[in-house]
Structure formats: C-alpha cells, structure tokens
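Quick one before lunch.
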Amino acid sequence: MSEKHAPMPGAESLAEPLRDRWSISVYDDQHTLSGEQVETLLHAAQWSPSAGNRQPWAFFVAQRGTPAHKALVEYLSRGNSRWVPRASAVFITAAQIAPDPEGEGPTEPAYSFYDLGQAAAHLTIQAHSMGLRVHQFNGFDTGALAEELGVPAWWRVMSGIAVGVHGDPAEVSERDAEREQRVRRRKPLRDIARGDTWAEPWDGLSTEL
Ligand SMILES: Cc1cc2nc3c(=O)[nH]c(=O)nc-3n(C[C@H](O)[C@H](O)[C@H](O)COP(=O)(O)O)c2cc1C
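Model of the flavin mononucleotide complex:
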C-alpha cells in the first residue's frame, strides 16, 4: 500500500495512527468488513467524549450491497459516486438536533454537531489503527437519504464515513487515481494558535508549518 501522503511535514511527531492517516480515494471493491470489525468501530465512537454524556449520535451501517448502501449510492454527488461505492462499508452519521416528541434531547444542536464530529474522529482513528482506511464525505443529498431511511425529523443526517482497504489504482480511471496524488495542505499553526488575546498569535511556535 502506498503511504506516500504521510507523514506530512510537521506530522512526524504525532502518535500512530494520526501520523499515517489520510483520505484515500481508491478502495478495494472486493474487501468486506467482518461483523467484529464493524462492532469495534462502533465501540470507538461510543466511547468518545460527549457534552453532558448525551451521546446525540447514530450511525447507519451501510455495507456494500445492503439496501442502505444502495440508497446512499443513489444520492451521492457526481464526484463522490466515483469512489464511495467501492468502499467496504459506509457509516452514515446522524446527529440529534432537537428534542424528541417526549421532550428528550438537545434544545439547540451545536454540541450535537461537536460531539458527532468527535465520535467520527474516534471511529476514523480506530479504523486506521486496525489497518483500515477511511475517507469522510458530505457530498450527497442528506435530506433525501434521511427520508428514504426513515430518519425522524429531530435528527439530521450529516455525513458518510467510508471504510475499507486501499485498492489498486489501475482498477479506477486515471482521473480517480490522480486524486490520491494531490498535495495535502494545512493552514500553518500561526493561523490557528492564539495567545493572550484573539489578536495575538501564540508566541511559543518554533515552526513555520
Ligand atoms: C465533514 C467532511 C466532509 C467531507 N466531504 C468530502 C466529500 O464530499 N468528498 C470528498 O472527496 N472528500 C470529502 N472530505 C474529505 C476532505 O476533503 C479531506 O479530509 C481533506 O481534504 C483533508 O485531506 P486528508 O483527510 O487526506 O488529510 C470531507 C471531510 C469531512 C471531515
């Protein structure tokens, strides 16, 4: 497997599997996830931190060939429809955005989104530590898919987490294979690290990266 996109400059000191993570776009379309692997990934999300320990998230397990997977594929954006269907499974994520009819649940959704993102990150990193590869995406008609899958109005479908193993770039179009060669870029730390006020960058940086 090519890991030429990692580690990136500045990422050498990160813990595995943060160091070697990147979003692949060529999946092996013959690979399947075992039930045990799926459960482990769900456990990773389950044990992520959550505001008030409310855990306002849910995941459809859409393994390739299942009805949920077929429904998702129908609603993918054109770009995503070229690579997502080859992944072994997609975890379709949803966040609770309002109270349920019994009045249980968040009155505003901000921390549901925060918590779901964190749960997705935990699932992603767990997958990488298991030798799996992950690419998250939101380029699909989330509203149409939510309706088709029977998602209640007080939940919102947010994203997909494609999971599988790296495939052979020769099996996909040149254009899709090239996607994986794109240079990965990040904002420099000076743009994200603040010091004593918003206007002051943190002065402890030793790197331009
Ligand atoms: C919420 C979210 C939505 C994304 N949507 C898409 C998408 O629709 N299509 C896609 O190809 N990549 C998508 N990505 C992947 C990002 O483009 C990718 O993570 C980013 O370019 C950084 O690359 P890296 O993950 O390899 O570090 C998404 C990522 C996140 C977290």
